[in-house]
Design brief:
mainly beta, 7-stranded mixed sheet, 6-stranded mixed sheet, 30 strands, 7% helix, elongated
């Protein structure tokens, strides 16, 4: 009897260990930022790294895999671990020196507890020397009870639909119409190669980068946009139409439309005061451009290499905008500049010095005021 009781106790203890395994001892970790060291505790379980911060009060979960030969169908992040709520998720090695390469994922599921995350599909070389793909993703799903985040058509937004957090690089949509409630984009739309048309929100003040989208043909810029980001449409070689509806746009930023080789014309809103460096450089199909009546300055190389440019309309009433060096270098001979009056015509002639124009004409209506201008 005593032997049987000992056996039963041993089996019970063994089963108890199997059902409730002892948690692995937490390890010490840190990230050295030079001026300070970020210290934390962590443990590795399966595909996830669990990071405890602030004396265990905050729990972050990072997915550890850095590459995969086949697409991972689904990554479902946990809402809690060891009785602690998870509030931050991401991927291990998520920085400039990251070794994550072509990690293909179909779906990421975000639980109801998450209010912060670090997930990126493609880095933008405007900020780094060269692009590197992090997570190649098709869609995102969010627990319907999450009070901070939501998804629509596989795209991740804030719950109130005012912030775009992430547009997956392999989303199936060819036409993306932003919700008109959307006011800010954390993520760019860089290299979203399936997109043919983008309608930016009328509530969006800053248009993010949508450059190197190899199939993009059309872009709508909303009514309240004040800034088009640097390099926003750079290198979109199929982009033929840009409709700018904003009446509060401050200007066209550096290399905003650089090498948009299919773009034929564009109207710059009356509110714009500046066309920045190389804004339309090497737009080889650009034939006509209407400049803002408030325009104060056209920076150097703004229209450099626009070999088809034949007509520039300047709407200023008093003085022509200041024109930078080689602004019109390597453009078509005999560009026609249309102005409002003689005062602007005289001012423009002076400003075209050093601009690179060849045999240009300045006209008021149909009347040629100055011709054979070489800058």
């Amino acid at each position: 009897m005593k032997k049987l009781l000992t056996t039963i106790i041993s089996i019970t203890i063994l089963m108890s260990i199997m059902i409730n395994p002892a948690s692995a001892e937490l390890k010490d970790g840190y990230i050295d930022y030079g001026s300070y060291r970020d210290e934390f505790k962590y443990e590795d379980i399966g595909d996830f790294k669990y990071i405890y911060r602030y004396e265990g009060k905050s729990l972050e979960v990072l997915y550890k895999k850095r590459s995969s030969k086949q697409e991972i169908k689904r990554i479902e992040f946990p809402a809690e671990h060891n009785g602690k709520q998870v509030n931050y998720i991401g991927f291990l090695g998520f920085d400039y020196d990251s070794k994550v390469k072509n990690l293909k994922v179909n779906t990421i599921f975000i639980p109801k507890t998450i209010d912060r995350l670090s997930i990126q599909c493609v880095s933008n070389p405007i900020f780094y020397e060269s692009p590197y793909r992090l997570i190649s993703l098709r869609k995102i799903e969010v627990d319907k009870d999450n009070p901070y985040l939501c998804s629509k058509d596989g795209v991740l937004y804030s719950k109130d639909m005012k912030i775009l957090h992430l547009y997956p690089d392999r989303n199936k949509m060819t036409v993306y119409k932003m919700p008109n409630t959307l006011e800010y984009c954390y993520d760019s739309l860089y290299k979203r190669n399936r997109l043919k048309k983008i309608y930016f929100s009328d509530s969006l003040k800053r248009v993010p980068s949508a450059s190197q989208c190899k199939n993009l043909e059309y872009a709508y810029i909303g009514k309240n946009t004040t800034v088009i980001d640097r390099g926003a449409f750079r290198g979109n070689k199929k982009l033929t139409t840009v409709k700018i509806k904003s009446k509060v746009l401050k200007g066209i930023n550096d290399i905003a439309f650089y090498k948009c080789t299919a773009l034929k014309k564009i109207n710059i809103p009356s509110s714009a005061k500046k066309v920045n460096y190389k804004a339309f450089s090497d737009c080889t199909s650009l034939k006509k451009i209407k400049l803002s009546k408030s325009l104060k300055k056209i920076e150097s190389c703004a229209f450099y290499g626009c070999k088809s440019l034949s007509k520039v309309t300047i709407n200023n009433k008093n003085n022509a905008p200041k024109i930078g060096e080689i602004t019109f270098e390597n453009t078509k001979n005999g560009i026609k500049f249309y102005v409002k009056n003689k005062k602007v015509a005289k001012s423009l002639k002076k400003q075209l010095k050093g601009s690179g124009v060849k045999n240009a004409k300045i006209l008021i209506g149909k009347k040629v005021v100055y011709q054979n201008i070489n800058g």
